[in-house]
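Propose amino acids for all 391 sites.
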C-alpha cells in the first residue's frame, strides 16, 4: 500500500475525524472507482472502518469513514523537572488511560532513566492493553532534543539529563519501534492545535509559561523546529538587556521576567518594601497570587500588570515576524483570565501594524495538565498513520 491517494485519505481524516466517500470524490476530483479501491485497501489493513455502511450500499444517509479506534494505541509521556504525566490514546485520538507521578530530578542519569521506564511500565499495565496494540510512543522532553537521533540533549532544569539516548532505551525496553523524542513545548503546541474546532488554523503560536517559558509554532499542520532544532525559544528572547542572569547565560531573557520563580521573588521584594498587599512571604503558589489579583490586591495587581507587559513585548515580536492566525497562552498564569487577555491585546493593538494584529485571535488555553502528554501521543499516532501507508 503506497500511493499518494492513500496518504491523502489519511490526511483528510486527521483533519476531519470523519468524512464520506462522496466528499472525498469531490475533494480529490477523481473517479469514484479509483477512490473506492484505495478506501478498500485502507479498510482491509484495519486502519479505517465505515461503521454505517452495509455491503456495497449505504443506508439512506451517507456513511462516514473513520479511524478504527481499537486497531492501535499510542503512548505520550510528559517528563518535567518534578512531575511526570502519561496518556494513552486510541487510533481515533480518544484518551483511554492517564497516569501521574512525582519525579525526583536529583538522581544520576541511570536513576532518571530507570524512573522513566518504571513509569512507562506502570502506564502500560494500567491500560490493560496487549503490547502489540501499542504502535508508538512519544516523549515530551523537558529540554533540548535531537529529534533525528532520538536523544535528550540537555535540560537546564534536570542536572543529569544530558546526552541520554532516550529513543533507543525506550524502544529496547518496550519493544515499540515508532518512537518520537520531542520538546514539551512542541508536544503541548500540537495538542492546542488539535483542539481548535471546527477548522484547524493555518498557523498557531503557543506561549507556554511555567517554571520555564517555552513556545511552539505550527504552520500548515507542521511543527516548526529551526535549522538546528533551536527555533521558537521565546523564553530566551531578551526583554530587559542587562537584567537578571538567565540559566542560559544571558541576562534579561523573557524567562527571567515572567517565570514562576521570578513572580515569587517579586512578591518578596514587594513585602520587603512594605507595599500594601495581602500577599505574604513563604508558602508561595501561583494560585494564591492569582486569587490576590482577582481580589484587586494592589501589590499583586502591579506585578500582574508588569508580567502582562513583558509577555506582550515578546508577543509583539511574534506578531511582527510570524503574523499567526491564533496565539494561545498556556500555563497556570492563564488563571489571570480577562485581565491578562485585555492587557496583552491593548499593548499589541497599540504597538503592532494594524494589518498584522487586526485578525489575530488571542486565547488562553483551556486544556488540563495531561495536555502535553496527549499532544505527544497524537504526534506518535500521526507518524504511525502516515508511516503505515508508506510501508
Ligand atoms: Zn535565557
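Proposal:
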Amino acid at each position: 500500500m503506497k500511493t499518494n491517494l492513500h496518504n491523502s485519505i489519511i490526511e483528510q481524516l486527521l483533519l476531519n475525524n470523519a468524512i464520506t466517500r462522496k466528499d472525498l470524490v469531490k475533494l480529490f476530483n477523481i473517479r469514484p472507482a479509483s477512490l473506492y479501491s484505495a478506501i478498500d485497501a485502507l479498510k482491509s489493513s484495519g486502519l479505517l472502518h465505515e461503521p454505517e455502511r452495509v455491503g456495497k450500499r449505504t443506508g439512506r444517509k451517507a456513511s462516514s469513514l473513520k479511524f478504527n479506534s481499537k486497531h492501535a494505541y499510542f503512548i505520550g509521556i510528559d517528563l518535567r523537572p518534578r512531575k511526570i504525566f502519561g496518556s494513552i490514546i486510541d487510533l481515533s485520538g480518544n484518551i483511554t488511560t492517564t497516569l501521574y507521578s512525582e519525579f525526583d530530578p536529583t538522581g544520576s542519569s541511570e536513576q532518571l532513566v530507570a524512573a522513566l521506564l518504571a513509569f512507562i511500565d506502570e502506564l502500560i499495565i494500567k491500560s490493560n492493553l496487549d503490547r502489540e496494540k501499542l504502535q508508538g510512543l512519544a516523549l515530551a522532553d523537558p529540554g533540548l532534543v535531537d529529534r533525528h537521533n532520538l536523544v535528550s540533549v540537555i535540560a537546564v532544569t534536570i542536572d543529569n539529563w544530558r546526552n541520554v539516548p532516550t529513543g533507543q532505551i525506550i524502544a529496547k525496553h518496550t519493544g515499540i519501534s515508532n518512537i518520537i523524542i520531542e520538546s514539551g513545548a512542541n508536544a503541548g503546541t500540537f495538542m492546542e492545535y488539535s483542539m481548535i474546532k471546527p477548522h484547524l488554523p493555518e498557523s498557531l503560536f503557543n506561549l507556554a509559561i511555567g517554571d520555564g517559558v517555552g513556545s511552539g509554532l505550527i504552520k500548515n499542520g507542521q511543527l516548526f523546529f529551526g535549522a538546528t532544532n533551536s527555533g521558537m525559544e521565546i523564553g530566551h528572547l531578551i526583554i530587559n538587556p542587562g537584567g537578571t542572569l538567565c540559566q542560559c547565560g544571558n541576562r534579561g531573557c523573557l524567562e527571567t521576567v515572567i517565570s514562576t520563580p521570578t513572580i515569587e521573588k517579586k512578591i518578596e521584594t514587594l513585602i520587603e518594601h512594605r507595599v500594601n498587599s495581602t500577599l505574604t512571604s513563604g508558602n508561595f503558589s501561583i494560585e494564591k497570587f492569582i486569587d490576590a489579583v482577582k481580589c484587586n490586591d494592589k501589590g499583586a495587581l502591579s506585578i500582574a500588570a508588569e508580567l502582562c507587559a513583558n509577555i506582550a513585548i515578546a508577543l509583539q515580536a511574534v506578531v511582527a515576524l510570524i503574523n499567526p492566525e491564533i496565539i494561545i497562552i498556556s500555563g497556570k498564569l492563564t488563571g489571570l483570565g480577562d485581565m491578562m487577555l485585555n492587557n496583552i491585546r491593548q499593548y499589541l493593538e497599540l504597538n503592532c501594524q494594524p494589518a498584522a494584529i487586526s485578525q489575530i485571535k488571542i486565547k488562553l488555553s483551556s486544556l488540563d495538565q495531561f495536555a502535553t502528554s496527549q499532544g505527544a501521543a497524537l504526534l506518535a499516532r500521526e507518524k504511525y498513520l502516515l508511516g503505515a501507508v508508506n510501508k
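The domain at 4-67 is CATH 1.10.10.10 (Arc Repressor Mutant, subunit A). The chain has a mean pLDDT of 91.
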